[in-house]
């Protein structure tokens, strides 16, 4: 193991894939998977997060006095009374009486139950009546919330370590890393297995950390696990962990010295508040340890280490023979002879203009159907040609039989045109997902239901508008992921800032979000942290989520899709009109102060 040679190879890999490596490390940092030091500056606040304070006194109240049930019921009932009074007052206005009355009927009860959070109190009381225990009712509610967090950690945060290692291992050999490589583990249908392996690894590390030196030693013993899983996720969990231990025998002190050689980089990261880590060090170290894994793997196979035959992804580390590739991709020659040009390129007028610049198909007709087919074939042809010419990893030579792979993931075509109905439906899907995310966040952090947003319905339009604008206004940037990311950051900043200005101007200065105290914020309306997250989400939407959603939405009959769109738009417009006169306000929406803890909670919890 020549350290200088490996560092030189790591530099070469970064030169080839700098931007995609940096983006991968940033995603990991924001997910909380690893590289947390790189967000030290961008996520700094003047005041501590409210959620942590809320969890502190809520949990103290529950654990010390067992009165959390009574407190939650009183809180929900108090908010329900306020909601009913608000509806009663709003019904005195002319527009509410005529169109938007919410006092009577099934729909009114459903909407009021959602906006006030009273359905949670009903849930708690129902569980209490069945179990006869206040604590069990609260425990079930808390347990459900914690399970959601655990599943996110189990399937996303942990597994993303493997996703990153796969990217870096492919990048050390090949010149191209398509965005679809983020979905490699889903493509081979091994996400559950990878999640289980990484979970057991984390569990063993945690248990060993309770010993004097076990945590330090096992950190290096298990260091190769994510690389092993990245190569072959089908290896059983305990076997992968044992393989890492065997590969690291006699190497742990050497790897400790490897870490020591990065002390200068760690110091630079500290004095730059993580900036140097974000723009270089994280990717550099990961590249370096990818080289270390390649070395240990070669050594293990040469020494016939136990189960080393399971490390069978040969072409992850070397190019395949031309003859083997020609046989595997024999159908590409026929595909290259087909006419894959745009069938509507000779047309003039608004329809081709909108299709070219905004990626929108105004009408679903034969020409657009033909375009989609040709575009999908063109996308596959470019992908397969890169693999055939040793530019990208040859998927068809992966050791796992093709019948166990997911063809939908392999053939995601993001260079497509979206129909009007798909655009409308995706707007409501993204708006609904944004609403659900913020509601769940407040439910977990503040232990209460908060109907987020200025509107009363279960949607946050800013998420839908941002996603759709990224899809259509930035259509011309799709072929360049870096340009897509930068332009998405700017676009999201403009949309969020001017939305905040408009809401404040039309509502007497009331704010529905406030980033005051966040690093690099502008008037509390936007901040660097939020824009980075929105841009990452925007790229995920363009390259993964939107194409998969569009594939599903296109299966709906056009007449049915149109009917659904008309209904959703009608309800949405009604909500817009009603909310313009009676905007959604209150605790956790426009009032950011935390409700005082129960009066009988003493000491630190009360503070």
Tally of structural domains: 3
Kindly state the percentage of residues in helix: 55-70%
Please tell me the overall pLDDT.
Answer: 79
Percent of sequence in beta strands = under 5%
Instruction: Specify the biggest β-sheet.
Output: 2 strands, parallel
Uncertain spans = 44-66, 93-102, 593-607
* SSE-based structural type: mainly alpha
Total number of helical segments?
Answer: 27
Rg is: 27 Å
Q: Count of DSSP E strands?
A: 4
Largest beta sheet: strand ordering: 1-2
Give the termini distance in whole angstroms.
55 Å
What sort of overall outline do the alpha carbons produce when their principal axes are compared?
globular
List the helices and strands and how they pair.
Elements: H1 3-31, H2 50-65, H3 68-90, H4 94-100, H5 106-116, H6 118-131, H7 134-157, H8 159-173, H9 184-187, H10 191-208, H11 214-221, H12 225-231, H13 237-247, H14 252-260, H15 263-271, H16 275-302, H17 322-328, H18 332-336, H19 350-358, E1 360-361, H20 366-388, H21 407-410, E2 418-419, H22 420-446, H23 461-473, H24 481-506, E3 521-522, E4 526-527, H25 528-553, H26 558-581, H27 603-606
Parallel strand pairs: 1-2
Antiparallel strand pairs: 3-4
Helix pairs in contact: 1-8, 1-16, 2-22, 3-5, 3-6, 6-7, 8-12, 8-16, 10-11, 10-12, 10-13, 15-16, 22-23, 22-25, 22-26, 23-24, 23-25, 24-25
């Amino acid at each position: 193991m020549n350290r200088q040679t490996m560092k030189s190879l790591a530099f070469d890999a970064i030169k080839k894939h700098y931007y995609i490596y940096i983006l991968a490390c940033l995603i990991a940092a924001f997910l909380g998977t690893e590289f947390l030091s790189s967000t030290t500056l961008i996520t700094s606040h003047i005041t501590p997060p409210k959620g942590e304070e809320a969890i502190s006194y809520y949990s103290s109240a529950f654990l010390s006095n067992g009165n959390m049930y009574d407190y939650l019921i009183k809180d929900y009932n108090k908010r329900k009374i306020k909601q009913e009074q608000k509806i009663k007052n709003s019904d005195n206005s002319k527009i509410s009486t005529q169109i938007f009355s919410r006092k009577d009927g099934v729909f009114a009860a459903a909407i009021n139950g959602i906006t006030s959070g009273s359905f949670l109190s009903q849930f708690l009381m129902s569980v209490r009546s069945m179990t006869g225990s206040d604590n069990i009712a609260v425990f079930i509610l808390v347990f459900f919330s914690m399970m959601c967090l655990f599943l996110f950690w189990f399937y996303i945060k942990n597994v993303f370590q493997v996703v990153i290692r796969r990217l870096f291992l492919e990048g050390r050999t090949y010149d191209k890393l398509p965005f679809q490589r983020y979905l490699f583990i889903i493509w081979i249908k091994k996400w559950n297995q990878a999640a289980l392996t990484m979970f057991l690894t984390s569990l063993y590390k945690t248990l060993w950390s309770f010993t004097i030196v076990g945590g330090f030693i096992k950190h290096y013993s298990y260091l190769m696990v994510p690389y092993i899983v990245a190569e072959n996720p089908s290896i059983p969990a305990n076997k992968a962990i044992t393989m890492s231990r065997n590969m690291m025998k006699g190497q742990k002190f050497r790897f400790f010295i490897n870490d020591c050689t990065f002390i200068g980089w760690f110091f630079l990261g500290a004095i730059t508040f993580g900036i140097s880590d974000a723009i270089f060090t994280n990717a550099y170290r990961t590249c370096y340890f990818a080289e270390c894994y390649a070395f240990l793997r070669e050594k293990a196979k040469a020494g016939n280490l136990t189960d080393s035959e399971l490390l069978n992804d040969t072409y992850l580390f070397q190019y395949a023979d031309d003859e083997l590739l020609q046989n595997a991709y024999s159908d590409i020659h026929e595909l290259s002879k087909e006419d894959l040009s745009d069938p509507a390129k000779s047309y003039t007028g608004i329809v081709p203009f909108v299709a070219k610049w905004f990626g929108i198909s105004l009408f679903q007709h034969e020409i657009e159907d033909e375009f989609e087919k040709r575009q999908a074939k063109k996308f596959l042809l470019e992908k397969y040609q890169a693999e055939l010419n040793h530019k990208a990893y040859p998927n068809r030579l992966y050791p796992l039989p093709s019948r166990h792979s997911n063809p939908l993931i392999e053939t995601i075509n993001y260079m497509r045109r979206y129909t009007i109905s798909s655009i409308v439906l995706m707007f409501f899907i993204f708006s609904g997902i944004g609403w659900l995310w913020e509601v769940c966040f407040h439910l977990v952090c503040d232990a209460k239901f908060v109907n987020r947003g200025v509107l009363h319905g279960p949607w946050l339009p800013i998420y839908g508008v941002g996603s759709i604008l990224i899809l259509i206004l930035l259509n011309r940037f799709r072929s360049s992921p870096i340009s897509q990311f930068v332009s998405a950051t700017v676009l999201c900043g403009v949309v969020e800032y001017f939305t905040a200005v408009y809401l404040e101007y039309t509502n007497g200065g009331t704010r529905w979000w406030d980033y005051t105290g966040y690093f690099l914020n502008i008037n509390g309306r936007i901040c660097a942290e939020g824009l980075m997250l929105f841009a990452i989400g925007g790229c995920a939407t363009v390259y993964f989520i939107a194409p998969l959603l569009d594939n599903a939405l296109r299966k709906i009959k056009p007449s049915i899709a149109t009917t659904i769109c008309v209904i959703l738009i009608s309800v949405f417009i009604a909500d817009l009109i009603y909310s313009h006169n009676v905007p959604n306000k209150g605790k956790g929406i426009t009032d950011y102060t935390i409700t005082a803890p129960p009066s009988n909670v003493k000491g630190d919890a009360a503070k």
